[in-house]
Amino acid sequence: MAYRFLTLALMWSLSFGSSAALPPDLELAIKRFIQKSPTVNGLRVETEFLESNLNIPACLGGSIEILAPTGARLWGRSTIQLRCAKAAWLINIPVNIHAYGDYVVASRYLPFGQKLEFGDIRTIEGDLTVLSDDVLRSPKAAYERVLGKSLQMGMPVGLNDLKESAVIKVGDPVRIQLTGQDFQVSGEGVAQTPGMIGDMVRVRLADGQVLQGKVLRPGIISVNME
């Protein structure tokens, strides 16, 4: 059985009954072990032990190691393991890890398509472990982007809720890539509608003709003539 050992040696020579809770010094050592995890680095952490009655065997002549299973994420409901190599036992300790930090929420009702600006959002402190992993920790990442869905006041703002703001605006000069069955040419035009990358926009050519094409990148429109 392979484990990634994050060990803290604890000399333990007492045997605890089947209804005994974790001794205070062992409980403290587990909390310190969790606090050192990169997953909660820099956050305020509270550890909730989910079982009050635990059977901790003796580890006579040895030391108890605190560890986490390989690949385990110490976040939310997790498992900490105690191991005594001398006595060849391993015990799972179920815990609920609460990590508190700042995250971004809507300051008011924000409709779909809203371009986020100062005053639309704010930061509050809360338990990050009950939020989605993409929740924004700083408002800076949200400014000048638009919402892909509406948000009620106080709702968290996630990275997946946002889209890039328009990279082409009405009146912008654009280069058009015209593609047909056996040809590809380029030309110049003026955007008639705004769009983000991947959007379809209308473009007016110098001769007055209006075409519709897809935004490839800022200033570049692809028009399929097939």
Describe the structure.
It is a single chain. With 226 residues, this protein is mostly beta strands. It has three domains: 3-98; 100-164, Alpha-Beta Complex (Type Iii Antifreeze Protein Isoform Hplc 12); 173-224, SH3 type barrels, CATH 2.30.30.760. It has one helix and 14 strands. It has one helix spanning 24-35, and strands spanning 3-4, 10-11, 44-49, 63-69, 76-84, 89-106, 121-127, 145-147, 162-164, 173-179, 184-191, 200-205, 210-217, 220-224. The strands form three sheets. Strands 1, 2, 3, 4, 5, 6 and 7 form a seven-stranded antiparallel beta sheet that branches. A five-stranded mixed beta barrel has the order 10-11-12-13-14. A hairpin with an 8-residue loop joins strand 11 and strand 12. The longest helix is centred in the N-terminal third of the chain and has 12 residues, at 24-35. The protein is elongated. The N and C termini lie far apart (61 Å).
Task: Compose a concise summary of this entry.
With 226 residues, the protein is mainly beta.
